[in-house]
Amino acid sequence: MPVDKQILYQYIDACELVKETEEDIRKIKQTRKRIEQDIVKGSSHDFPYTPVNFHVEGLSYSVVSDSSSLEVQEQILEERKAAAQAIKLQVEAWMLTIPQRMQRIIRYKIFDEMTWAEVAAKMGRKATADSVRMEFQKFMQAA
């Protein structure tokens, strides 16, 4: 299955989206597990009416009433995460099919977000920023 080369530009966003979505899912799970606790003071029913402390805990009403919406939100986030991971896998599989030199250029420029001068320095072999940029542009424009 050929991959559109423009998907490269989605790779960085897909990686970040996976991280952000995992954090959102963690927050939802934490909300669902939130237990409210309190201490209530009272006294015994009979004389001498001695003071007594009672420990009370349970789920807050908002967590119980929003349980189904939290499940829907979590399911949507899981789907978003799966879609982002699919993009990452497509790019990583496609990268194995291109020449190694271009793999390095793409990794440095797109994934590591280096400048063309930095990419050229990493590539070595008297590469210049312009030569590496032109090589990348020709590759991206080729069918």
Task: Describe what this molecule looks like in 3D.
The protein has helices at 8-32, 61-65, 67-95, 100-111, 116-123, 129-141, and strands at residues 35-43, 51-59. 7% of the residues are buried. 64% of the residues lie in helices and 13% in strands. Strands 1-2 form a two-stranded antiparallel sheet. The protein has 143 residues and is an alpha+beta fold. The radius of gyration is 28 Å and the shape is elongated. The two termini are 14 Å apart. It contains 6 helices and 2 strands, in the order αββααααα.
Q: Which structural category do the helix and sheet elements fall into? A: alpha+beta
Question: Which percent range fits the helix content?
Answer: 55-70%
Strand content: 5-15%
State the strand order across the main sheet: 1-2
Describe the secondary structure blueprint for this structure.
Layout: H1 8-32, E1 35-43, E2 51-59, H2 61-65, H3 67-95, H4 100-111, H5 116-123, H6 129-141
Antiparallel strand pairs: 1-2
